[in-house]
């Protein structure tokens, strides 16, 4: 969690994207950014996505595990960069706590 928090602080100095409504392009970008975080990112179902004015993205993701079954929705936190790309900081309980502490 400490690594995620330090990374979040470091990325908060990047030029943030302007907040707006969540589009299907945003959802596709988040799924693409989760490639290295999930066992089966193509099976990912994403809901309750919120993008803050500073570019912080919070939501819930459900994806298949090693057994091929959906594991249940877990919170995630990501950053929307000024390039329009996303970087996933974390998936799991700690990510949900970070989102809650930021008021997102």
Topology:
Layout: H1 2-11, H2 24-33, E1 40-51, E2 56-64, E3 74-80, E4 86-91, H3 93-102
Antiparallel strand pairs: 1-2, 2-3, 3-4
Strand content: 25-35%
Rg is: 13 Å
Helix content: 25-40%
The unreliable regions are 4-19
Protein structure class: alpha+beta
| Oligomeric grouping of the chains | single chain
Order of the strands making up the biggest sheet: 1-2-3-4
Count of DSSP helices?
3
Count of DSSP E strands? 4
Architecture overview:
This protein has 104 residues and is α+β, with helices and mostly antiparallel strands. The chain has one domain (2-102). 29% of the residues lie in helices and 33% in strands. It contains three helices and four strands. It has a four-stranded antiparallel beta sheet with strand order 1-2-3-4, sandwiched between helices. The two termini are 18 Å apart. Residues 4-19 have low confidence and may be disordered.
């Amino acid at each position: 969690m400490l690594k995620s928090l330090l990374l979040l602080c470091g990325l908060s100095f990047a030029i943030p994207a302007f907040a707006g409504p969540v589009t299907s392009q945003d959802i596709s970008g988040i799924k693409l950014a989760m490639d290295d975080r999930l066992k089966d990112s193509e099976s990912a179902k994403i809901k309750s996505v919120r993008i803050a004015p500073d570019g912080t993205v919070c939501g819930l993701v459900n994806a298949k595990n090693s057994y091929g079954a959906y594991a249940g929705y877990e919170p995630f936190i990501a950053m929307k960069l000024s390039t329009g790309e996303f970087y996933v900081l974390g998936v799991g309980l700690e990510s949900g706590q970070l989102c809650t502490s930021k008021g997102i």
